[in-house]
Structure formats: structure tokens, C-alpha cells
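User: I'll paste a sequence; please echo it back and then give the predicted structure.

Assistant: Echoing your sequence first, then the prediction.
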Amino acid sequence: MELTLLGTGAPAGLPRPGCPCAVCATARGPYARAATSLLVDGALLLDLTPGAALAAARSGHTLSGVRQVLLTHPHDGPPVELPAGLPAAGRVPDGRELTLISGHRVRAVAIDGPGTGYEVTSPEGPRLLYLPPGGAPAGAVEQRRPYDLVAADVTGRPGALARLRATGAVGRDTDVVAVHLDHDVPQGRELDRRLAAAGARALADGTTVTVGAYREAPPLPRRTLVTGGARSGKSLEAERRLESHPDVVYVATGGTRDGDQEWAARVGVHRDRRPGSWRTEETCEVAPLLAADGPPLLVDCLSLWLTDAMDRVGAWDDETWRRTGEKALRERVDELVAAVRATTRTVVAVTNEVGAGVVPATAAGRRFRDELGRLNAAFADECEQVLLAVSGQVLVLRG
């Protein structure tokens, strides 16, 4: 089954008409995207958009053989002119299945919002799933086997991908193609980086892919460290890296602080941002979690973990530090680093960069700064990918 991406952008296209944002300003050439429209084996058109016939011609195809035109979502704006010879566009009721004269079977998939998803099975057997903008399957999607290809709004609705993975609809070999791409994510390397973390990819308009053909799955980093300064966007980046996973354990190392309303507000912001399916563990006993089997871990953050570790060994007192504290802290850090090295779980950890600012005025403050630098370096050595967040932008230091 051949799938041609006549367009891969949001309904308004990219750049959006009249939009002055930075993403739209740079969405030129290969980064310009027409509204998403898919042509399946020249026989089925999913979503009729302006310029579909011209887009097909540019990709070396024609719409003359199209036998069915299906819409996935309400189309705002002026009516789209139907190219000559094309059948009228329509939608299939949820759960209904139809068979085209070409032998393709199409089943309408219920969505948890306006619109309809379509499962398409070719006469030879490969299957694809196409979801509308911001759409996710409603309820459980029972699968005998994973889809060969899923085209979905990965950047706008990563939870949809998590739901498909949870039900087995997306497996390790499923080709996940991001469509309905809008100006919420910069194009180019930044888009590729974010999609790679979700096990997905973006393709240029006009690309044709063979659904079900062997494609080597891209290697995903299993251990990632995200570092940066205060309010740099590091926690948000860490959460983005796991938002397409169905189950995640969020390891909160800060604990609770009775009576501290400002701290409670910070915790509330993080909690509200996380998917409801994630489970939270408030603990600094991270090594046992790393040693156990289970879903991905998001550890936020190492600097608070180190604060707890230094509390336990009395590292803030100069005399205690000299007699027993330094040795005890080294042992606890070594235990954590060894657990990261040996873990089989997917891990994303967050930490702070505190050594690039003002030198602390106290010996205890300087001690914490130095020990956090050592911990960050040792932890980073065990990670396949290390990221630096600066002013909300992410730089890849390794991987």
C-alpha cells in the first residue's frame, strides 16, 4: 500500500496566512506545509483540501483514479472546490466499514472529539490509521496486531499516541508519521528532535511511503539527563520526552513542605501539567526504583535528591563533613550512579546548573554547588543523551 502525503500541515496550513510568529516566518521551502491530505494507492483520498489536485501532480500522481473521498473533521473556511471527476466527499458513521472497488477496506474509528478516524486495510494486508487534528480514539482500541503506519497529530495530541501504545495499536515497528503540523513547534531540527523522542517522524509534503515495508526503527535513548538553570524549561522538556508513553512513574524528590504555600503552588503546576495516567512517587530512594522493572521513570530532580542526601550525612556542618560526611555522600552518589548504569528502564532525569552564577557566600553553599557539579557529570556519563535547556530552548550536548 502506497501512501502519498499531499499535505502534512494544520487545517490552516503552515505558515498560517497573516501570522507573524517566528515559526510561520521561517516555514518556507521544505518547511512549508499544506493542510493534511492523504492519497492511498491513488484510489482513496483522506481529507479534501485546497490544491489537492495540484499537490498530487507535483508528487507525480493523479486523482483520476480516486473512488472515495472521506473527511475526518469539520472543515472551516470557504468551501473547497471539488476537482472534476472526483466523487463527492463524505464521512462514514463511527464503527461502519465499507469496501472500495479497489479492494481496500475502510473502518470509521470513533474519536474523543469532533471528527472521525479511519482505519484502512489494503487488499494485501498492511493497515494504516489516520486521525484528525487533536484527535484520539475514544475508548479502548483492541488490536490483533499493531498498525503498520499511524498518521496522527503527534505534536498537538501526544496523549493519543500514548493511548494507542497502551492498547497495542502502536508497536515497536509501527511507522508513526506526524501530520496536522502547526506553528506550535519550530520546524527543522527542533521538530525532528521532539518527534524522535516520541518514536515518530515528520515528512515533507509530496512524500510517498510504502506502508508495511521494512523500516529500521530509529534507536531511542533509554537514559536522558536534562540540565539547565532556573525556569529554563528543563522540567517541561523532560515531560515532553515521555508524554507519548502510556505509563510513567514521576519520581518527585522534593517531597512536601508543610505550610509553604509557594512550594505547594510550584508542585501544583507540575502536577496539573502531567497526564492523568502517570503515577507519582514522592521519594529520594531512587536507586531501588531504577533496579526494579517497570514503566519509564521521570526523576525531578537530582538537585533536590542531593539536598536530601547531604541532609542525611550531615554534610552542611564542616566538622561532620570532614570526619564522615564526605565519605558517606560519595557512597550514596556512587550507589545512584551504579543504579543508572545497570537499569533496564527508560529514565529521564532533571537537574540544575548552579555553577555558572554567583559564587555562594558560605562554605556549605559552595560545597553543595561543587557536589552537584560532580553528581551531574557522573550521571551524564551514564546517559545516552544529555540536553541543556536555556531560555526555553534545548541544546543537545550528547546523543
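The chain has a mean pLDDT of 90. The chain has ten helices and 20 strands.
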